[in-house]
TrEMBL record, chains A, B, C, D:
It comes from the Bacteria. This is TetR/AcrR family transcriptional regulator. Residues 9-69 form the HTH tetR-type domain. Pfam families: TetR_C_6, TetR_N. Residues 32-51 bind DNA. Coiled coil: none annotated. Keywords: DNA-binding, Transcription, Transcription regulation.
Amino acid sequence: MSPRKVDKAARRKEILTAAVKVFARKGFAATRIDDIAAEAGMAKGSVYLYYDSRDALLEAAFEAYRAMSADIFDRAVNGPGPALERLAGLVHAVLDVLAARREPARIMVDLWAASRDAEKSPVDMAAVYGDSRAAIAELLRQADKEGVLRAGVSEHHAAVIVGALEGCLLQCLVDPGLPATELAEPIIQVCLEGLRRPAA
Amino acid sequence: MSPRKVDKAARRKEILTAAVKVFARKGFAATRIDDIAAEAGMAKGSVYLYYDSRDALLEAAFEAYRAMSADIFDRAVNGPGPALERLAGLVHAVLDVLAARREPARIMVDLWAASRDAEKSPVDMAAVYGDSRAAIAELLRQADKEGVLRAGVSEHHAAVIVGALEGCLLQCLVDPGLPATELAEPIIQVCLEGLRRPAA
Amino acid sequence: MSPRKVDKAARRKEILTAAVKVFARKGFAATRIDDIAAEAGMAKGSVYLYYDSRDALLEAAFEAYRAMSADIFDRAVNGPGPALERLAGLVHAVLDVLAARREPARIMVDLWAASRDAEKSPVDMAAVYGDSRAAIAELLRQADKEGVLRAGVSEHHAAVIVGALEGCLLQCLVDPGLPATELAEPIIQVCLEGLRRPAA
Amino acid sequence: MSPRKVDKAARRKEILTAAVKVFARKGFAATRIDDIAAEAGMAKGSVYLYYDSRDALLEAAFEAYRAMSADIFDRAVNGPGPALERLAGLVHAVLDVLAARREPARIMVDLWAASRDAEKSPVDMAAVYGDSRAAIAELLRQADKEGVLRAGVSEHHAAVIVGALEGCLLQCLVDPGLPATELAEPIIQVCLEGLRRPAA
DNA sequence: TATGAATGAGGTTTCATTCAT
DNA sequence: GATGAATGAAACCTCATTCAT
């Protein structure tokens, strides 16, 4: 009559969470479906009821990553307050995420590896960084309209800011000794203050 | 004396070069010993006469990467001229390497992945970045002695500069559309000019 | 009495019909219980309420095939009219079944495969062909009594007639271009006229 | 210097022979690569050095079957002597092969099953039977030119003869009790004598 | 009775590594 | 030293069957 009923979406999320955990711990290449199933507390075959393949799980992890990234950047672009303050908040937000949950961030290296050939792979980190640069560029335009930027700030500077962020994340990832949150202010100083119009 | 010693080292280098080429092209995970042997123009078994395992080849690739990186940074630290000019030269040098030979740089993502567990793996990117930060910090100290830095420049700023460099490399790697060399000047502007003491 | 007995039998038949359809379409080896359940419009688990296993369904398909075959042959043996006319009618009947519903006939190859080891498998095509030969032999005896056969017609000739029938079916199965019904008359000519006593 | 050298073609043949043996014994569906490797006296992985997949082995078995079949029919078509005698010889040859080596013939049912969907599968039994019919039809034309056939013998009679042959083979396959060789003469009588022009 | 989620044994295929020549 | 055939341990994925609801 009332056969076992599961919330498919919830189950997918459970499995994805487990997968991300294991990917973060062992790396995608070294992760076995068995590991994910064990982490999720189910049998190997059950994973396949919700995801078609191991690659599909990485892809799902990418989508989640992309959504999270987009969310952070969107909030900065569309939020209230002076543009440069929102940019500073963005820097803090990104590093806080890493500091709060180191593991999930570790899958980034697997996402980079998976997006090696942009055409063949659905994991498209180029698009993520493109979006990030566009968001930062928009923030810089907003700041420029506010008249707080010095002259000559171009699109390329957005790439540098994104780079500084990701590059600091990267260092924190490979070197657990580096304190992510403490890098926020230096990043802000270097990247933003350097672009700010000198106070008369 | 040792009639074949030179040959042995040359052979190792040949194989390593081939391996790096294939790693760059297909990624470490997708690289087969067969691919490397084919690229090196020899039989699969012969690879094992010079390297103990597939992992040993990645390790060797890491050592080469580390050496190259150390070389670039050392030259900047020990070179002649004003410190900030050497720092600017360093930025150009790093990005020029990427622009000149995109493929070899691609192995970085595999090195990152391999250095996931710092203890177990001989691939230790944390050390590389630690060295890089130390070099930049030394450059900043030199610049400070020259009196060209504004006050309050700390070790963390070195991390930001390394981060900006690596983060821009990363974006260029993932997105072939981004022109590496064109990012050099923006990086220099953002990272260095922002730290420079305002001209009286 | 037993309120659901009729339903149970009907349900079994529904499932069997669905199974035969899918077996015919995809072959037994490629048929999944899911396919059968879908074809029958029920859930996978329900199939197991009526059949113990996938093999049991093939066995049931075999029984149905055997019954149908026995029916056709029995009618020819016990029917009215001259024996050779009944034999000719039998040939037409067999080929007409194939022409009418090509799909169900396709399961024959799966039945042959399943009857590979006569001891272990309940699918026993040897018995079916044995019965067929016996029926044909009986028809030939009847014809002999009617005095219309030439001398020397033995049991083996029954095997040849069965063989010609099945062999033509096989060709039609494998080659959709061959028109089953058009083969009836040639079969009759070759097999029967050749055995008929030359008209004085 | 002189590294291990194997005759690739010979090795392929060895493996194919082993595969055919196991296919015949257990059926294609029930045959595991392990079984084939064991039968060939090698490790599982070695099989894949010579054949790409299990399906490729069935395909190879088909090619061998097709070649053998073509050979027998070609010899009958192009041989010396009266056409009907060659046809009779053909019948004996086909049944003798079965009698001599029952096992290899058993793979026929797997070939039939595999040729279920003519487009997708490289196993094309329809083509084999088409060739067989063409050969028989040619023989009948030759016999007709020799003036030994009665009138009205058409292409369809070739199908009947092929059918009688295959149908008898089939019965012998599923019923080990049926003696293949003893069916040769009845087949010849039914199929050929029935077509022969009555001696004045 | 009906359901369909869960299971896990089992099969194919890959490929790093070994080793006989 | 060089070769490349052979190995066999994994790992992915499938799917018949079970069973809680």
